[in-house]
Amino acid sequence: MIDAIATVERNDELAPGYKLMTLSFDEEIEVQAGQFAMLRALGAFEPLLRRAFAIYRREGLRRLSFLYQVLGRGTEALARLSRSERVEALIPLGNSWFSNSTTNGLHRAIIVAGGIGSAPLLMLCQQLKRMQVNTQIFFGAANRSAAKGCGLEDFRALRLPMTISTDDGSLGERGFVTAPLERYLVEGNGVGATVYACGPWAMMRRVAEIAAAFDLRCLVSLEAPMGCGFGVCVGCVVAIRTDGPTGYETYKRVCVDGTIFSAETICWEINAMLH
Amino acid sequence: LIKVSVLNQKISQVTNRDTRLEVEIAGIRFKNPVIGASGTFGYGLEFAELIDLNRLGGFSTKGLSARPMAGNPPPRIIETHGGMLNAIGLQNVGARAFIEEKLPLLRHYDTQVIANVFGYSDDDYIEAITILNDGEGIAAYELNISCPNVKEGGIVIGNSALAAARLTEKAKRASARPLIVKLSPNVTDITEIARAIAAAGADALSLINTIVGMAIDINTRRPRLSYGTGGLSGPAIRPIAVRMVYEVAQSVDLPIMGIGGIASAMDALEFIIAGATAVQIGTANYYDPTVTMKVIDGLIEYCNRNQIEHISLLIGSLKIS
User: Fold this and answer.
1) H or E stretch including A269?
2) Which residues in chain A come in under a pLDDT of 70?
3) Catalytic one of B90, B128, B147, B171
4) Cα separation of B203 and A222, whole Å?
5) Which end of chain A is less crowded, N or C, counting CB atoms within 10 A of the terminal residue's CB?
């Protein structure tokens, strides 16, 4: 983990409301698929807190890109940055998709990307392809434009089997991304696969249920408002299932205990109130 | 004066330490008056990768209770303008685990460790202190009677001069170490509480804790924090904190650690001039994790620029004509 000052190389709109920002760093930064950074325009006081962004892609030795949806004060401030402006970056943070599991024996993977939840999944797909793991992608977004904004072309370029769905049917199948996932499994595909998911809370909750029903290991990358990103503020917690009397005594920090958790450990019904 | 200054700079170059910044509070020597504030500095170790902990005056741990605490359900934090609201609810590993798991690692660093202590009742506080008395490498206790985010103990005690004095007296008796009491700003007259705590035997005061606030989601019409209210911190509260430090410094004869929205050496100096012997830095650690080092550097620069022989010459030096 370093606290670096990076320079904006590009900050392009992929689709209305979605941007891809490439940052160049003075030094090479070792990052794993699924990790994130806390970013803020250098010296900015509005907003005060840095915001957490998944690392989307490595763009050469000292460049990393971040795919984001412009949603609030933090992302609006980032969206205004142009080439050569500077950004404070605490990086790399969080665990990775392979932190708690060995890749030995991993022969089949299912990726479920919902909306901007695609951001921490591209590097994972790149890695799975390099490892020659049999990988099937389910890519869901609100509509055709959002799909483009969520990096659809980058996922397509991997030439991995992919099923696309949109809420309004403007691209691919109409409906939620979980429908083709469930059908795929019902049809007898994906036996023994590990499921990797990131997207809206309700989507991840449903993916977790489906994976459990088919006895598949499932990992999810969670999002939470974060104060610091490195474990000290204890603000970004998620309720974790325990054997205790209420079943959810334990709160884990999304920033350092995650962002990637085994889906079965998440107390989905408790945390659902927040999402 | 010039000779002293040159000598100090040489010492500073050799030991990375500027003796002009050394301060003493309740018999504890801090190499500089810059201290990480409780709740924003974890157990200190989280910062080891980011800053040189050996350069830091000290830090106050996340509030420690006799038994581990789960904390409040999320959402626990929300950013406001110039600050943030939090209602963490004192999630912590517990006093025993702190001694066994964190302290041995902290002993590798040359910085003063203040154990912040919390309880729901007087007995809880005393139990936590009794456990922590066994810990080697704790410089002092900071009695947290001002956390606004738990329903019992804490702020309930800190809002009453009588209850605060009673607990201070008990804690002082139980404590093997100097006792700092952290004051709540959520009171009508902070000097009344400060005087009562001073009379009860506290060795130092730290102030202010967060200011109770609230934020509402206008779409769901629910509070943005699960707890309902939260503690406001960050630059937004600094002028309130400076005023309270000034008032308390005028009314009690105890060393003060000033806290509230400090994010630069200039901010720290305001508190020192108002009457604080040292400062604690809180929320700024989140958005600028190396801020403590920047404040130390800034204090040295200020001393150089203004030919200040020792930082203590600035304490309570406010001119009111």
Assistant:
1) helix A268-271
2) 100-104, 244-249, 271-275
3) B147
4) 45
5) C
> Whole-model pTM?
0.93
How far apart are alpha carbons A239 and A242 in whole angstroms? Answer: 9
B contact test, residue of A50, A88, A228, A252 with most B CBs within 10 A: A228
Q: What 8-state DSSP symbol labels residue B24?
A: E
Mean pLDDT score across all residues of chain A: 93
DSSP, residue by residue, A219-253 = EEE-----SSSSSSS--SEEEE--SSSSS--EEEE
Decide: helix, strand or coil at residue A125: helix
**Interface pTM (ipTM) of the complex?**
0.93
Element (H, E) at A69: strand A63-69
Mean pLDDT of B8-16: 52
- Measured CA angle at B276 (ends B35, A232), to 5 deg: 25
| Per-residue pLDDT at B10 exceeds 80 | no
**Residue B111 and residue B57 in contact, taking contact as beta carbons nearer than 8 Å:** yes
E strand residue ranges, B228-295: 230-233, 256-259, 278-281
Searching chain A, which residue's CA lies closest to the CA of residue B86?
Answer: A235
**Which residues of B fall within a CB distance of 8 Å from A271?**
74
